[in-house]
Amino acid sequence: MPHPQYEFANGTVNSCRRFHSIPSLQRAPCGPRTNVETYEGQRSANQPREVQKRTFGSAATHIQRNPAYSELNSDDVSYFRSILGDGVVEDEDRIAVANVDWMGKYKGASQLLLLPKSTIEVSKILSYCNTRRLAVVPQGGNTGLVGGSVPVYDEVIVSLAGMDKIISFDKVNGILTCEAGCVLENLSTFVENEGFIMPLDLGAKGSCHIGGNISTNAGGLRFIRYGSLHGNVLGLEVVLADGTILDMLTTLRKDNTGYDLKHLFIGSEGSLGVVTKISVLTPAKLPSTNVAFLSCNDYTSCQKLLLAARRNLGEILSAFEFMDHHCIDLAMRHLEGVQNPLPASQYKFYVLIETTGSDESYDKTKLESFLLRSMEDGLVADGVIAQDISQASNFWRIREGISEASVKVGAVYKYDLSIPVEKLYDIVEKMRCRLGDNAEVLGYGHLGDGNLHLNILSSKYDDNTLAQIEPFVYEWTSAQRGSISAEHGLGLMKAEKIHYSKSPEAVQLMASIKKLMDPNSILNPYKVLPQSVL
Amino acid sequence: MPHPQYEFANGTVNSCRRFHSIPSLQRAPCGPRTNVETYEGQRSANQPREVQKRTFGSAATHIQRNPAYSELNSDDVSYFRSILGDGVVEDEDRIAVANVDWMGKYKGASQLLLLPKSTIEVSKILSYCNTRRLAVVPQGGNTGLVGGSVPVYDEVIVSLAGMDKIISFDKVNGILTCEAGCVLENLSTFVENEGFIMPLDLGAKGSCHIGGNISTNAGGLRFIRYGSLHGNVLGLEVVLADGTILDMLTTLRKDNTGYDLKHLFIGSEGSLGVVTKISVLTPAKLPSTNVAFLSCNDYTSCQKLLLAARRNLGEILSAFEFMDHHCIDLAMRHLEGVQNPLPASQYKFYVLIETTGSDESYDKTKLESFLLRSMEDGLVADGVIAQDISQASNFWRIREGISEASVKVGAVYKYDLSIPVEKLYDIVEKMRCRLGDNAEVLGYGHLGDGNLHLNILSSKYDDNTLAQIEPFVYEWTSAQRGSISAEHGLGLMKAEKIHYSKSPEAVQLMASIKKLMDPNSILNPYKVLPQSVL
C-alpha cells in the first residue's frame, strides 16, 4: 500500500537520481561465545498446552488458567445482549478470527466477542465482568506482535472496532479528538486533508487502532522527528476495571494539575484500563518530503551516517531507517511489485532517509549535498533520491514490507530491542552464528532511535530453535543495559521476562499499581507483568 | 542575565532592522459580568495563621498542621548527623532562607535543613523519616511559584543542592545523565559546549534545579519546539517515601517493558518520591538563531500571527511569546539596562518570535519574508529583527524579566492558566474590569502553547483583592475547560482547587496512588492534592 504522505513538486516519473557505487559484501566472522551466551534447556514437548496451539512466545506454555476467574454462562450472555444488542457476537467464525493474532502465533479460546458502541457500554461491560470475575481482553486492530491482544484462555474479547468516530478537530492548533477504535490510516487521511499529519506512522497503519497504538505506546517511523506518544497524547478517556469512567480528555498542551494519570495507560497494554477516547496533537503537514535509499558497506558507516544526518539535516530529518541485505533479499522475493532501487545484494546495509520541511527546492538541495558529501567521506556506497511519489512509495514499501514478507516464509521469531547504537548490530551477527543454517536472521529497524527489529525466520516454529534464541537474546540485551521491548510491549510473550529490563523494585511497584487499579485482575490477564508478583 | 544561546554570523552591533509602524492603542471596554463572575466572601482577617505569615495562596490559611506527624527532637538530629555529617544545617539564617519562597509569599517554620550528597543518603533520610513519621519537603532551587518547595509547618527540608554532579554525556545521541541538584543554566552551558541544548529553558534557569524542573514538569520557552518533559526525560532515579531506591535511569529512547513509572514523578511535585538522578534527551544545537520583536494592534492579530508562523516558519519556529503593553511598561520601569526596541507604549501587544535552524542566511531570509508578509497582511504593526547577540538578549530580557519586575512592585498574585487560544486574553480584560484601579493586571506568556501568565500587581497582599480574584479566575478558567495550572503546578496555593481542572474520579485515583506510595504521607504534605481526599 502506498505511503500516503508524499508530495513532490515534480509529478512526472523520472528515473531516480543515482550516485556512483562502491560495491562490497562480506559476511562478518562469528566471534567466540561470550559469558552471557547461555540458554535454557529445551522445553518439554510433552507439556500440556491446553488452549494454546502455537504459543511460542516465551513461557506462554507454562501459564495455567487462573481458577479465580468465573466461566462464562448463558446468564452472562443474556446480560450482555441486554446492554449491547447485536454487539454480542457468538458466531464461531468471527470469534475464531478474534482469538488468534495476525501471525497465527498466539491463539486463545474465547467464546464471546463484544462490540460496544460507546464508553457507557464499555463501562457496563467492565463493571459486570468485575463483579462476576470474568476476565477480559481488550482488542484493537489485533496487529500486535507479542500476543497482547488475543485471549490466552477463555477471556471475553472486548473489541473497540465499533467505536471509530472522529469527535472533533481543532484546525488552529491541530488537535484531533476521536474514539479509540479509529484505524490509524483513516486518521492520517483525515488530518492530512486538514493540513496536518499524525505524529506516528507504522507498517500496520491500515489495520491498527489508535487505542491500541496508545495502549502499546507504539513508536514507529516518525518517532525520530516527533517523539513518543507520551509527548503527543494530550488527553485520554479510559474505563477502569470496575467500570469507572476516567475523563482525562483535555485538549490542552499544558496542564500541571495533579498527577498526569494518562501516562499510566500509555503503554500498559490494556491491563490498567480500556482506552475509549483520545486527543492527540498533530504536527502541521509540511509541503516538502524527500526520500533517499542508500547503501553502506558496513555497519560502522551506517552509524556515522546517522550522526552526520543529525548534524547536517537537522530540523528536516524525519526518518532514518536501516535494513541489512537479508531484509532486501526477502522483500524482493516475497513482496509483489517491489523493485530494489540499487543493484541487488551488492551491499551489506541499506538506509532509508526521509526529510520533511517547508521548502521544496531548499530541502532537496540540502539532502543532495548531504548525500554527495557522505559519498565523498566514504559513508555511502551508492544511493538514489526518489524523483516522484511512486519511487518514494517503493522505497518505503521495502522498509515497511519486511514484517509482512517475514511471515510468508513460515515461522518468524520476532524481537524488538533497544540497544546502544554502537552495539545494536552485534546481536544480529551473534544470532546468525548460533543458528547457522537452521534459520535466516534479519536485522532492521529505526536506527535513529536505537531500535533493532530482529526477525528470525524458520520453516516452522519449534522448541529447538526457540531454545537457541531465548533466553540468550534477552540476557545479551540486558547485559548491554538495553530494553527487551523497545516498542512492541511485553504482552504474553515477554511478561515473565520483564526483569531483564526492569529492577525488582520497579516491577514490585508496577504490581502494586495493578492490584490497586484492578484488584480482581480482570484486565488482560497473564500479560505485561509476571504472574509471580500479582 | 543574557540569554546564552544566541549566535549570529554578524557579530557587530547594528541598529535593529525596522519595519514601518501603524500605531493604535485603545483599552477594551469592560463587558457585563457573566454568570461565572461570582466570588467567595472575604476571608476572616482574624483567623489564626499560625506558622504562615503571608500565605495568600488559596486556602493556605485554612490548613491545620497534621497531628499525625511527629515533632523533631534531638535524637533525630543526632541520627541525621550520624549519616550526613556537616550536611545537617541548624544555623537559623540558613534555615530561614530555605523556609521562604523567593517571592516572600509562603513561609514555613522548619527547624532543620538536610543536604544529602548521594542517593544513599536521601534513602536513609526518607527511610528514617517514614519510620518516625517526620514530614519532609524536598527542595530544589526554590524558584517555584505556588508554595510547593517550602515547608508549611515544621517539615524537615531535604535540599538536593549538594547533589549537582554531571554523571555522563553521550555525545553521539545527546543524552545527559546528571544528579537532581544541577542548576539548569549550568547544564545548558555544559551541553552547549558539546553542541547540544537543553530541551527546556525558563526565566529561573540561573537558580532552578533540573530535579525541581522535573518534579513540577516545567514548561518554559522551548516547549513549542521540543515539547514536554514527559517526552524528553528518558530515565529517572527516585527515592520513594520508605527509602526504596527506584532505578529507572535508562538512557534508551524507547523502552516498552511494563508501566512507564517515571511519568508518575514528572509533575507530582515531590509528593510521590524524591528525584535524585535524571537522564534527558538534549536536541542538537543548531547554528542559526534569529529573534524578532514585534507589535500587534489587537489580540486577534496575535492569534493570526501565531497561525501564520506555524504554517510559514514551520520546522524552524522555536519560540512564540506574547506580552501586553502593561508588561513592557513594567519591564522598562523596573529592569535595569533594558530598552524597548519599539516606540514605548504605542501598541497594545508585543510578540517575540525566535527561529532556530541549520542555515543562517536561509533562516534569516525566511523570517524576514514572513514578517514582511505579516505586515502586508496587517497582522504586525511594527517590528525589528535582532542583528546581534546583544539585541537578541535585550529582546529576551524583556520577556524573561517580567516575572522579576512584577515582584518589585510589592505584592504579585500570579496565575498560570491554559486556555484555548481564542479566549486566552479575555480573562485579562475581565480581571482589569473587576479590579479597577486597585491593581495592575498583566497578561503575557507562551501563546504558542495556549499558556497565559496572569500577574496582578498590588502595593501589598490583602484579602479584599484576593477575594476579587479568586475563585473567579478558577471558575472562569474551568468554564472554558482550561487548566488552572499550565506549568507551575498546584503546590500549596492550588491543592484545594484541583477540582476546577480534574474530575472527582481522577482526583480519587491520584489520592489512591498517593496513599499506596506514601502511606504515612510524609512527602511534601498539604500540597498537590486536597486534604479531604487523603
UniProtKB/TrEMBL annotation, chains A, B:
PANTHER family: D-2-HYDROXYGLUTARATE DEHYDROGENASE, MITOCHONDRIAL. One of its GO terms (cellular component) is mitochondrion. It is an enzyme of class 1 (oxidoreductase). The keyword Flavoprotein applies. This is Probable D-2-hydroxyglutarate dehydrogenase, mitochondrial. Keywords: FAD, Flavoprotein, Oxidoreductase. InterPro entries: FAD-bd_oxidored_4_C, FAD-bd_PCMH, FAD-bd_PCMH-like_sf, FAD-bd_PCMH_sub1, FAD-bd_PCMH_sub2, FAD-linked_Oxase-like_C, FAD-oxidored/transferase_4, Oxid_FAD_bind_N. Residues 106-285 form the FAD-binding PCMH-type domain. Its EC number is 1.1.99.39. Signal peptide: none annotated. It comes from Panicum hallii var. hallii. Its cofactor is FAD. GO terms for molecular function: (R)-2-hydroxyglutarate dehydrogenase activity; FAD binding. It holds the Pfam family FAD-oxidase_C. Belongs to the FAD-binding oxidoreductase/transferase type 4 family. Catalyzes the oxidation of D-2-hydroxyglutarate to alpha-ketoglutarate. It catalyses: (R)-2-hydroxyglutarate + A = 2-oxoglutarate + AH2.
